[in-house]
Amino acid sequence: MLDIAEELHRWVGQGRDFAVATVVATHGSAPRRPGAALAVDSDGTAIGSVSGGCVEGAVYELCQEALRTGEPVLESFGYSDEDAFAVGLTCGGVIDILVQPVRTGGRPAGGRAPGEPADDTARTLAAGLAAAATGEAAALARIIEGPAELRGRALLVRPDGSHTGTLGGHPALDRTATALTRALLDAGRTTTIEIGSGPAPEDGARGEEGEGDEESAEQPGGEQCGTPVHLLVESSVPAPRMIVFGAIDFAAALVKVGKFLNYHVTVCDARPVFATRTRFPDADEIVVDWPHRYLDSQDLDARTVLCVLTHDAKFDVPLLERALKLPVAYVGAMGSRRTHLDRLQRLRDTGLTELELNRLRSPIGLDLGARTPEETALSIAAEIVANRRGGTGVPLTGAHTPIHHDTARPVGRIGSVA
């Protein structure tokens, strides 16, 4: 749902009632990932997508029905389901979709502002949309399976562990869900988790990305409570960063592709005559500084990609010496194979280990036969996506590898509602 947060946030501000259908689970070759959403307002206006066109018509009708009844519903569409096949899901996968009405209340009485939702769940959803629309880090957890009266209930969790809303039921459910949602927010992950019947985490307990074993999740001091529930956790985090070093024509093309892939793109070059807004109108930031000095000043996370296009040893070597020690997602450097070998030796002389050197993607990009700056930018972007998603870079035609990869380790069954 947070992928269409900006438009939905506007709808809330305008007092428009709507229903939002969110992909909560996928199996097989499904076209969209959990979190993808389609929303329909009371006038019939639709935004977003849950299937790339396969089942949009059926989901549109479910949204209209949810607006009429005011009740959330969980539906599954799959290749083996005759009704689903009839509406067009022919890719062979299965998608589970939660359809949830959001009543903003129009122009309410009783002191509420226009567009302020009347019930707690709607207010929590509206707060989550506002956070995502304004770039605030937050995660929204919603019950998708469990006691019928709790379906759709929502909890908004912030990086400091504070939360808005409640999932209902036993108070300990909120404590456990907050701890687990906070851990997923730290990792920037959107996924479905199950909260089972074991002991709960103590307040403030936090896991690491991918932690999902019983030992790590079961903390002493929890109380026992009822039926397991399934949550969809959607994380809204600031856009990942792409830092392009070297203000050359290839960088200008890469900036455009980086923005298309939703990166926050910075161009850095020590030469002020080249690092200008005129040359890089699409960049979010343009920095005039020595690349290694700028890198030292930045606090980078595991989603950051670094593209070194300076092609000059006096810039490349001190920059890469630092970059290859950082826990970033990708480090690539432009240059011929001869330049690459010379660069590797210079980096060895600085004391970098072979393990650190093996992180370097050089020559940068996938082999597309690229010649122009635009083609080269596409080659670099393709390698970044393959690295991020676990792709192989080989043609899908004739291949027997999965079309959609999932590099995230499953969270699975974690903890309890107590």
UniProtKB/TrEMBL annotation:
Q: Please state every residue range assigned to the domain named XdhC Rossmann.
A: 242-384
The signal peptide stretch is none
The segments labelled Disordered in the record are 190-227, 396-418
List the Pfam families.
Answer: XdhC_C, XdhC_CoxI
Low complexity compositional bias: what residue ranges?
A: 190-202
Q: Could you tell me which InterPro entries the record lists for this protein?
A: MoCofactor_Util/Proc (IPR052698), XdhC_CoxI (IPR003777), XdhC_Rossmann_dom (IPR027051)
Residues annotated as domain XdhC- CoxI: 11-78, 132-195
Top-rank taxon of the source lineage equals Bacteria
* Protein name as annotated: XdhC/CoxI family protein
